[in-house]
């Protein structure tokens, strides 16, 4: 890698799948090869400060998404500005008495429709590191193949690329004297009348189309009075409850002296006062209330389920799985919750594992490759969930690479060494993601057998495969 020419880099196979954006909406998620990911992330990281300086300053309180601020731990974005500050600034403007109407809108297919030449122009204007820009554009071209638009959805690097590309729209609105806030592709425009609100919306729509060929989502575009805006976006029962929950939980994190708000919490180790505060949140009751609702608040449910996982509350596992169709948009949060449960007995864990696998036939949640990968990750990243040989039959049932990769890892985690022994001679017939998963899963083979096989493979393996074998040898299943 140290001698590779990034300007002439041959990209490696990426993966794309359909993922839910909300209950009835979808988007294409992209996962690039790990080496490609490191490459583009490093390139963007090195010009991150240039990109940040070229954007509207965050001190103006206009753009709240993906503000670059690196730290020693490798984080890229400023943790003090984000969706919460976007909401707060929107609320402050709406309650200031200076505006009568608010335009609520967002861009349709933002990441997939960004034109490559607009991306290149924005990056070139932001930094003098021309070779970085050339290397980034070369990678995007390799991934997009025959089309001249689109950046991968879900990559940290993509966020900064998108932000600098759309900065010209922010500057256009500001130059027109329009008061607005933005978070990624969500805009809030503030006006003194309905007529002015329409003019602001037209200005935004015109700039997006003329500059980028982008359009707004019609069904998510509304012109509201400030009162209706505040009622609709800030004063719903669930919204108020979520805000109150977040505030109370933040108070608890401080009082309990926790280093990170998302770390696991040992209830028994808390002081009596902190236990009382946790009990007062009534998370289990709130969960049940939301699941009984015909139209549950997904944001509130995500918060509740995440906190139940922190608290190792396994009593809600069954009811969460029984209501999985309502939790369809936040299925990853459900799996993360299950994976955090620490005090389950072996019998309880096996029962929950079996209940999770029943979703394959009993719920539409398994229809997407994306969700199947998350479901099988419960078994590939943890032990004791049961299944065992049943995983082999699932491998035959689902031929897609997302499912098979997770199932191979799960077979290794459950020590199905016979399965790998029967297939290890065909390793050269596989490539990329599956091959690396097979190498990692095969660490369940007996030490001598694994050692000799890995030694045979090393001369025939690429850099990343060799790294996987080295890791698997040090961390066998």
In short:
The chain is α+β, with helices and mostly antiparallel strands and 477 residues long. Helix content is 55%, strand content 8%.
Q: What is the beta-strand fraction? A: 5-15%
Could you estimate the helical fraction of the residues in percent? 55-70%
Rg result: 25 Å
Largest sheet features: 4 strands, antiparallel
User: Outline, from the CA principal axes?
Assistant: globular
Number of strands: 6
What is the count of DSSP helices, taking H or I runs of 4+ residues?
22
String of helices and strands: EEHHHEHHHEEHEHHHHHHHHHHHHHHH
Which stretches are low in confidence, meaning pLDDT under 50 for 5 or more residues running?
none
Structural class call reads: alpha+beta
End-to-end separation: 29 Å
Mean pLDDT: 90
User: Strand order, biggest sheet?
Assistant: 4-5-3-6
Structure description:
With 477 residues, the chain is of the alpha+beta class. The chain is built from 22 helices and 6 strands. A hairpin with a 2-residue loop joins strand 4 and strand 5. Helix 4 packs antiparallel against helix 5, helix 16 packs parallel to helix 18 and helix 17 runs antiparallel to helix 18. The longest helix has 20 residues. The radius of gyration is 25 Å and the shape is globular. The relative contact order is 0.08.
């Amino acid at each position: 890698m140290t001698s590779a020419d990034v300007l002439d880099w041959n990209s490696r196979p990426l993966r794309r799948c359909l993922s839910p954006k909300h209950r009835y909406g979808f988007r294409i998620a992209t996962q690039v090869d790990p080496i490609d990911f490191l490459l583009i992330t490093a390139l963007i990281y090195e010009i991150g400060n240039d990109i940040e300086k070229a954007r509207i300053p965050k001190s103006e309180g206009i753009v709240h998404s993906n503000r670059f601020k690196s730290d020693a731990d490798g984080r890229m974005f400023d943790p003090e500005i984000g969706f919460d500050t976007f909401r707060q600034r929107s609320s402050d403007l709406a309650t200031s008495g200076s505006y009568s109407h608010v335009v609520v809108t967002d861009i349709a297919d933002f990441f997939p429709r960004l034109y490559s030449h607009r991306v290149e122009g924005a990056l070139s204007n932001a930094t003098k590191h021309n070779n970085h820009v050339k290397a980034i554009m070369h990678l995007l071209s390799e991934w997009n193949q025959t089309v001249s638009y689109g950046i991968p959805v879900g990559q940290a690097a993509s966020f900064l690329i998108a932000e600098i590309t759309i900065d010209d729209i922010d500057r256009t609105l500001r130059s027109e004297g329009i008061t607005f806030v933005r978070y990624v592709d969500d805009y809030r425009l503030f006006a003194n009348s309905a007529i002015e609100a329409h003019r602001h919306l037209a200005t935004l729509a015109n700039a997006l189309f003329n500059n980028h060929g982008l359009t707004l989502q019609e069904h998510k575009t509304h012109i509201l009075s400030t009162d209706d805006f505040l009622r609709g976006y800030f004063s719903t029962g669930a919204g108020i409850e979520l805000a109150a929950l977040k505030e109370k939980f933040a108070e608890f994190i401080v009082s309990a002296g926790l280093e990170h708000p998302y770390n696991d919490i040992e209830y028994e180790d808390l002081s009596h006062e902190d236990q009382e505060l946790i009990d007062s949140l009534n998370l289990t009751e709130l969960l049940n209330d939301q699941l009984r609702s015909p139209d549950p608040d997904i944001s509130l449910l995500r918060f509740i389920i995440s906190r139940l996982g922190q608290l190792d509350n396994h009593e809600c596992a069954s009811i969460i799985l029984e209501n999985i169709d309502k939790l369809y948009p936040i299925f990853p949060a459900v799996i993360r919750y299950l994976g955090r449960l620490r005090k389950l007995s072996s019998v309880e864990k096996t029962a929950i594992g079996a209940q999770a696998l029943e979703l394959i036939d009993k719920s539409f949640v398994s229809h997407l490759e994306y969700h199947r990968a998350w479901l099988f990750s419960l078994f590939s990243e943890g032990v004791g969930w049961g299944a065992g040989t049943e995983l082999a039959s699932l491998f035959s049932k689902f031929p897609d690479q997302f499912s098979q990769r997770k199932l191979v890892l799960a077979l290794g985690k459950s020590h199905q060494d016979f399965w790998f022994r029967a297939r290890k001679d065909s390793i050269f017939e596989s490539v990329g993601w599956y091959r690396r998963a097979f190498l990692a899963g095969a660490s369940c083979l007996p030490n001598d057998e694994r050692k000799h096989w890995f030694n045979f493979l090393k001369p025939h393996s690429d850099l990343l495969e060799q790294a996987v074998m080295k890791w698997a040898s040090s961390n066998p299943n």
